[in-house]
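Q: Focus on the chain.
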Amino acid sequence: MDQVICVDGRYQVGEKLGTGSYSVVYHSQDIFTGQKFTIKLEHRDNTGVSYLEDKYEILHKIQHGTSTIPGLPQLIWLGREGIYHAMITCLKYVHSRNFIHQDIKPRNILMGVGDSRDTFFLIDFGIAQKYHDPSSCIHILMQENLSLVSTPVFTSLNSHHGLQLGHQDDIESLVYLLIFLHHGSLPWLAGDSKMISQATRD
């Protein structure tokens, strides 16, 4: 649980405040607005039961849709993060920091162990690039005839065409990765076992 960096693509998790029998409480800050929160995270178990969700539903019924009752906290339910959602959330956070990864592929995806077994890690930022200047709101300039720098099997069409990449190309590569993880192959691999094996090693 301590490995979580960002929840729902915008709530940065900070200092731990306390630990309960089924959840951990942290300081949190909205990376877009700067607003500060207290966030409670619950480790998912095999039963599928969420005590936090049950508590939220009870308080929501008590408040009857009103979030400004004196003495009662204002709650936001962020839902559950499965591995696919965690990948999207992680990539969304990278983009919010004005960088693109440019090499989304199986080898750059790691899963935690033990208490962090549900935590997703995106690694190898060796060819990551800043694509947006937040001070000027200027996007990286479009270029053509660029060399292919990403892994061919998972990279975007723009990359194959030698075009400057943007955040949408990371998303396209992530879609290819999710298809690969779900089906064990991609249409352009045509079930070729050698190419599939190579795709997981590159």
Observations:
- Residues 109 and 122 are 5 Å apart (CA to CA).
